[in-house]
């Protein structure tokens, strides 16, 4: 992919799932990767280990790539400030931010504890904004950069019992569009990709064959997505191949946003 080799990339929430796959994908494309984690240094170190062993397998000396782990809770401004300081000092700058960290908590919308609702807004939406602010400040002083946000089909599709999650991802869409417009003349592009059902730890049903089959029966392509399929799209949006795209959400969902119940046409 054009424009990733040698770039410095920060991936939030990169110790598992889609973020982990993104970190590994970008490193395989020759990027220097900072793996952010909140509370799992061991898993983050395993991601770096995998990046380095992939390099060796590809015949590239692992020390040719800089990489690091960095602890931060993205919902805390002081953590985010310190994370950006560490990443910029260690990698020598930042070219690409991937806002991936997120969580979902379900519950009836009139009953869910406000503390759970607040967590989803604070991490998924406010955390992405805190990181975007820091990245943009750096990009403005260094000739530009790219932000890719990991949104969700639920920025568009309502999801009963997930009001905090849907609101946070709809807010992420508004942020993507607003920042893209505001910084379009500054060589800063901001886009989102929106996964559908993806096989990661956020979805405990992935290990329950019956529930998984039920969920997949609603997906036009008949299967869940993989973290690697999401990583490929994040890489495309961050690369020079997407040089003229800004303010967009690319849905990566096996057709989930295409009114699946209309798949079988009415004949009457
Ligand atoms: P995951 O649980 O494996 O990954 C979420 C990551 O975010 C974890 O590593 C977690 O530690 C990290 N995180 C949570 N709170 C954090 C905080 N305060 N600070 C820093 N990191 C924090 O699940 P995933 O599916 O890989 O989720 C990644 C992103 O993808 C999320 O934003 C999620 O909303 C989005 N997404 C996932 C799916 C899916 O079906 N898996 C669908 C749509 C969108």
UniProtKB/TrEMBL annotation:
The keyword Heme does not apply. Keywords: Oxidoreductase. Transmembrane segments: none annotated. SUPFAM superfamilies: NAD(P)-binding Rossmann-fold domains. Pfam families: adh_short_C2. NCBIfam families: PRK07231.1. This is Sugar dehydrogenase.
